[in-house]
Amino acid sequence: MRIGIYGGSFDPVHNGHIAMIRSALKSGFIDCVIVVPSVRNNFKLYANKLPAPYRFFMMKETVEGLGLKDCYVSDIEYGIDGVSYTAVVLAKLTSDEYIREYLISNDVKRRKAEEHHEFFWIMGSDTLGTFETWYKPGEILKYASLLAAVRPGDNTDVDKASASIVKNLGGRVELFRLDGVNCSSSGITGSGDFSEVPEPAMEFIRRHALYTANTRLDGVSEDARKQFFDYATWMYQHLGSRRLLHTLNVGYLSAHLAEVFGCDKDKALIAGALHDCAKELPAEQQLEMAKRYSGELFTEKKLLHSPAGATFAKESLGIADKEILDAICYHTTGKDNMTLLEKIVYLADKIEPSRNYTDLTPIRQAAEKDLDSAMRMTAAAVRDKFVSQGREIHPMTVLMMKDLGM
Ligand SMILES: [Fe+2]
Ligand SMILES: [Fe+2]
Fold first, then answer.
1. How far is the CA of 396 from the centre of ligand 1 (A)?
2. 214 CA distance to ligand 1 middle (Å)
3. Could you tell me the distance, in angstroms and rounded to a whole number, from the CA of residue 333 to the centre of ligand 1?
4. Which end of the chain is less crowded, N or C, counting CB atoms within 10 A of the terminal residue's CB?
């Protein structure tokens, strides 16, 4: 097969990206496109607006939602340590072993997946001029030809740039005509005009309340912001998409509530983001990790991930801050004498933007003004749910409700 590879931040994905994919597929040079949303590229190590998993799943939902045929989205960069340079990504992606398995897992017939493949790196013609300054450009050209999109009327420099690449580095450069809008992700987020964002991506953005004041993380330290981005990448290996996005949403909302109620924003961001990190570990491992953090306090299967999460965050990420670990440990049940941070993570978990188990509008409104009142409303909803399911309320939750005057 002739495979086009299209890398980018997609922060957010817009109609220009979609036009690029469609035009490349129509160019006659390739049979399919593999889109590779970046995790840590050298230009934007931490400069993206959103951590990698949001951008990855936004792209995936967009490709599916638009029904783009012969287009796949790859998470290959999560398996690369350090900066994901194009040369490094291509070395891995174009290896027989990797690409065959990847194509088969995307329902490409085995016979096709196992034939000899030719690779093309898809790029905008505006980046051709700087290609020779990229990391190991000669190596890139060993793995793939360049397939550059040219807008009608913008040929002159492009021809010169491609000739220079071929002369200095060898390899092959092909051009294709790009039909579509001219827009940029930074233009979209800068202006707040999202009209060039395709509907499936827009739906994703609304569901998770992305690109809002909360996700700018104003007032969060640069270190905490970097940690948040790194932990998001780390958790991709441990959680399914829904839960991963949920736990990151809780990070954002916790940081926002910390701002409203005068709590440490860095701690709230990290505790919120990690609160469910252990939820998909094997049950026995959760039990063992839970015991190490809180003894026999939690035995019910559904609750184990909270203390286990504290152990996981401590041992795998080296988080030593007891306040953060406790906020993770007690996020499901609550407890007596809760700290501000514990309350914030408890509440954010129940009402983050993608939660829709009931109409949460009144609680969300209360959470902007009166923390304890929002806590009471949440605890009452939890109590009602437990009563209707005939389940017993955990003694720690009973203590929390007593403290809240319930
Ligand atoms: Fe949880
Ligand atoms: Fe949760």
1. 15
2. 21
3. 9
4. C
pTM score above 0.70: yes
C-alpha closest to that of 332 among 368, 364, 290, 371: 290
Q: pLDDT for 125-183, tens place per residue?
A: 888 999 999 999 999 999 999 999 998 777 668 989 999 999 999 999 999 999 888 89
Tokens representing residue 175 in the block? 């051009």
Which residues place a Cβ less than 5 A from the ion ligand 1? 276
188-210: buried (b, 16+ CB within 10 Å) or exposed (e) per residue? bbeeeeeebbbebbbebbeebbb
For residue 308, how far is its CA from the centre of ligand 1 (angstroms)? 11
Residue 228's pLDDT band, with cuts at 50, 70 and 90, is: very high
Domains and CATH numbers, the chain: 2-200 (3.40.50.620), 219-403 (1.10.3210.10)
Phi, psi of 75 (to 5 degrees): -105, 25
Quickly tell me which residue has 């990229």 as its tokens: 134
- Are the C-beta atoms of residues 198 and 62 closer than 8 Å to each other? yes
Per-residue pLDDT at 6 exceeds 90: yes
